[in-house]
Amino acid sequence: THQWRGIIEEYRDRLPVSDTTPVVTLREGGTPLVPAQVLSERTGCEVHLKVEGANPTGSFKDRGMTMAITRAKEEGAKAVICASTGNTSASAAAYAVRAGMVCAVLVPQGKIALGKMGQALVHGAKILQVDGNFDDCLTLARGLSDNYPVALVNSVNPVRIEGQKTASFEIVDMLGDAPDIHVLPVGNAGNITAYWKGYTEYAADGVATKTPRMWGFQASGSAPIVRGEVVKDPSTIATAIRIGNPASWQFALAARDESGGFIDEVTDREILRAYRLLASQEGVFVEPASAASVAGLLKAAEQGKVDPGQRIVCTVTGNGLKDPDWAVAGAPQPVTVPVDAATAAERLGLA
Ligand code: F0G
């Protein structure tokens, strides 16, 4: 009976918890690091996918949320609040259930994927759809947590970053050292901040001999860091990263510069192409925002920025089932057949 115990138990000595901290966990983390055959062939590199959609609520947010809810519980919080493009709210709602807390979520009206809304609802969160974008939701959430008895569990809460840095630990533990390049989608920029923290901690302690270059990718319509200015009305089909004023902007710049990496943008078309490639050629079904990392790697390769022979990890942040509309859209409709083997065989091209 050996089961992965969740990131707090697995990495307890590297996280801000004590022996008496009441750990709230769904046994998040321990996610697959999957060799990507087609991407490796295309780039001449050794490419791996860190499949974060395999977390309990289907995204990387669970790593940060186990920490945030655990610490909120320790501090006696009865209620938590977050702003979200969908995944944070799904995760907060689930962990709040485990902790016996009330969960309030603020989401941009009409701009979150159906699966994520369903998760927040079924876990019993109190949902407000805000007539504004994610950035407006975050401003509102901060104001409420400042003035009312409710703890903020967005990644501006530093313990969220602590939890999320464990993904880097898992990668180094699995590969035996840090990769040469790490590629991530960037929205509110908490995750790139967290990965960089994890890699630098392991390198400082000699667990890894090096740190990777951090490559981050925003969606073109929501690329404030690339443009160097706030985007007032962000747009992209990748609703998870539809963010115009990232909270961890400065930390993302630090991760980029200290690692010798870069932050670039990918178009919705490039995101969808990578999304389909991952599903149809690697067997990994992710949500559109997650495909931004892979779209970025392919773009960089086409631009000649990827020297062959390197070890590259792309994080794919969320499960494809959260936003199935894009899987169905544009795909051929399945044909209907009678209960007849000959007809079925013929339609399947077997006969
Ligand atoms: N990928 C997915 C699937 C996400 O849900 C997010 C962020 C990101 C990438 C970007 O990560 O914000 O740390 O740079 N989702 C947040 C949310 C904003 O509310 O669920 P980031």
UniProtKB/TrEMBL annotation:
Keyword annotations of the record: Amino-acid biosynthesis, Lyase, Pyridoxal phosphate, Threonine biosynthesis
Family annotation (Pfam families): PALP
Sequence ranges assigned to domain Tryptophan synthase beta chain-like PALP in this UniProt record: 24-318
Required co-factors: pyridoxal 5'-phosphate
Functional pathway: Amino-acid biosynthesis; L-threonine biosynthesis; L-threonine from L-aspartate: step 5/5
Keyword rRNA-binding on entry: no
Catalytic activity from the UniProt record: O-phospho-L-homoserine + H2O = L-threonine + phosphate
UniProt-listed Enzyme Commission number(s): 4.2.3.1
InterPro entries according to UniProt: Ser/Thr_Dehydratase, Ser/Thr_deHydtase_PyrdxlP-BS, Thr_synthase-like, Thr_Synthase_bac/arc, TrpB-like_PALP, TrpB-like_PALP_sf
Keyword Zinc-finger: no
Task of the protein: Catalyzes the gamma-elimination of phosphate from L-phosphohomoserine and the beta-addition of water to produce L-threonine.
Family that this chain belongs to: Belongs to the threonine synthase family.
PANTHER family: L-THREONINE DEHYDRATASE CATABOLIC TDCB, THREONINE DEHYDRATASE, MITOCHONDRIAL-RELATED
Protein's UniProt name: Threonine synthase
Species the sequence originates in: Streptomyces lomondensis
